[in-house]
Amino acid sequence: MDPAASSRVGRHAAITFAGVMAANVLGYVFYALVSRALGVDAYGTFSSLVAIVLIVASPATIGQMVIAKLATDFAGQPALLSGLVRTIDRVTVAFAVAVAATLAALSVPIATFLHLNDPLLVALAALSLGGAIVLPFTRGVLQGTSAFGAFSLSAVAEALAKALFAPLLGVAAGLRGALSGMALAYAVAAGYTFVAARPHGRGAAVPLPLRTVLRTSVAVALSVFCINLLLFYDVVLARRYLDPHTAGLYGAASLAGRALFAAVGFVPIVLLPQAAGRSARGERTRVLFVMALGAAAFLALIAIAFFAAFPRFTITTIAGRSFAEGAPFVVPYVYAVAMLSLANVIATYNIARSRMRFVVPLACVALGEIVAVVLRHRTATDLLQTIAVGHTVALLACTLSLGRNRPQSR
Q1: What is the pLDDT of residues 319-361, one digit of tens each?
Q2: pTM exceeds 0.90, yes or no
Q3: Could you tell me if 169 and 180 are in contact, meaning their C-beta atoms sit under 8 angstroms apart?
Q4: Which one of 111, 309, 356, 373 is at 20 to 30 Å from 81 when CA atoms are compared?
Q5: 282 near 246, Cβ under 8 Å?
Q6: Could you tell me which of 337, 342, 334, 336 has the C-alpha nearest to residue 311?
Q7: Domain tally, the chain
Q8: CA–CA separation, 149 and 269 (whole Å)
Q9: Following DSSP, what letter does each residue of 3-25 receive, concatenated?
């Protein structure tokens, strides 16, 4: 990689890392304040509803990856890029409204499944779902066009708004208030992101090449869905199978793992457009991949070491002293998410090179892990052991496409 390209990648990585870390810190301020405002049992309910929102919104996260890949491919063709942005504008809001309305319509059965006495909580979570869907689609344009400054500001705006609105409304109105505050935060961040991406939709637009779009979308969609499902599903099942107190402790411990995933998240964000662009131009990508994987592995090792040394400090700092019993859950959870973070980096690199051999094995691993949790869930330790093994196998599955480069991307 030439010095100019290395400098550009380094600059993009630094901006994105700063934005992701700021958003991550604010995210933990959000969770810390909400947990203190609600208490252990109510926080278990809150975290399970947040997990449902994030799981159901995972198609939008999938959409972000697909759109980022397409925006990278169309970056040199303004008419196609404009057509992509205008299509996103038309489709996203309608899709968000439809999915949120569906979740709201299912409030009663979902509340019954989670042993909740207030179906309105699920309906309020549905309001958050609308914003959670809109944001990633629009961020995909910023990512794919390497507008990492605006991308980072969007992430910070979302986290800051959550940290302000959800705890304040949670103190005033309990769970209903916290969920309403989160919905308001998503709306604020979505508004900024729409404005930031809008310039790419100006000018003449031409119809998108549907065959290219579909070919790119299907494999990417399944890959990103599996990664996001593995990141969040266990908190929902913990609320289903564990007692409310243990589920609250488990939800707090999961925040440490998500902190690591978010911190490492800047790596695939930068890697996708850089590797895809170089691969399309016939340039080498392997050095870029080694740098990305090395950075992710270094952050993962540092995080595991820190959480292993200070598990009680970690969970009480995040959620409060009443969550101290969850300290034994922290290290195994962080290890599991470290493996998933590395899997995400490798999957992103494979997607950038359009090498999708890993996708079906990854889907099989995700399904197998969920089945294992359903069959073996007597204690929180059982869940943690299962996800630690499953996430490690997911990492191995993602390596199946490595080494199958096209000649120009050695």
Answers
A1: 778 889 989 999 999 999 999 999 999 999 998 888 888 999 9
A2: no
A3: yes
A4: 356
A5: no
A6: 334
A7: 1
A8: 12
A9: HHHHHHHHHHHHHHHHHHHHHHH
